[in-house]
């Protein structure tokens, strides 16, 4: 991996974050600033709605060959994307992948590689869920589903794409984390726990993949008005229905609100995230940030990210694995 100056890295990350967090603009206003992704092959999980759906359209319109994946096909969202691809003549393919299934992850990536004629360039690990409420109220059904989707699902997908990426000695993996992967809000269920785990897994992958010229960027979005709120209410409502009184009686007011979250007051543009990812894909190899906060508001995790990077370099930067650490943080 090409060595770069740390100030250049931080400046690039800051510039990308500023662009992502800028006020919403029309497509015509932003088109001139959007990168050309022609020649890139990008697989995205969780494309039925939210960042995944928006990203699939955005990257394809920028010239990429996109594999938009979702579970439970056939479904209306898949047909809408196929119709869009046909109408706009986009190189966009809709495939089935349920990230809870080892078999579907392997088969979906294999199918994408077959269509692509070789290994993929980019994986966007976007599929994820939230189930809110006090930690004590989270039963094992909810806990296992949260970790299986948000952590193990990303691991399954990384394992599926990496053999091909290593063969061609290049590639990018984006982990869609959250601000809550670095800071914690009470009563968020295990969401922070899963995203903390995803952050750790992504950073470890970044180090281990340096010799293979494969880069990892952890995207840390703030709150956006996507359908994540709708889906979260479905899962959380089901948890509340089956919850045992001996676990809920200590949190009466919180439990009463479970399954009734409302994201309608959030006004940030969800396109911030696909635009930030597209710009990161287009950055020169070796200059892409390990972590990229994307927010229409506050970014509370900035100092945490700085301290952890400094700590990693101070602790391991001069050890036998120091070159891998420094290649990622470039201190």
What's the level 1 CATH class?
Answer: Alpha Beta
Rg for CA atoms: 20 Å
Count all strands and give the number: 7
Mind describing the biggest β-sheet? Answer: 7 strands, parallel
Percentage of residues in DSSP E strands:
5-15%
The largest sheet has its strands arranged as 3-2-1-4-5-6-7
| Average of pLDDT | 90
CATH topology: Rossmann fold
Taking the alpha carbons of the first and last residues, their distance comes to 14 Å
Q: From the coordinates shown, what is the CATH architecture?
A: 3-Layer(aba) Sandwich
State the fourth-level CATH superfamily: NAD(P)-binding Rossmann-like Domain
Secondary-structure element order, N to C? HHEHEHEHEHEHEHHHHEHH
Account of the 3D structure:
With 331 residues, the chain is α/β, with parallel strands linked by helices. It has a single domain (6-329), classed as NAD(P)-binding Rossmann-like Domain (Rossmann fold, 3-Layer(aba) Sandwich), CATH 3.40.50. It is built from 13 helices and seven strands. The chain has a seven-stranded parallel β-sheet, with helices on both faces. It starts with 5 loop residues before the first helix and ends with a helix.
What is the strand and helix layout of this fold?
Blueprint (H helix, E strand, L loop, with lengths): L5 H16 L5 H5 L9 E4 L5 H12 L3 E6 L5 H13 L3 E5 L5 H15 L5 E4 L14 H29 L2 E6 L14 H18 L5 E8 L6 H15 L2 H4 L3 H6 L14 H11 L8 E4 L7 H15 L5 H8 L2
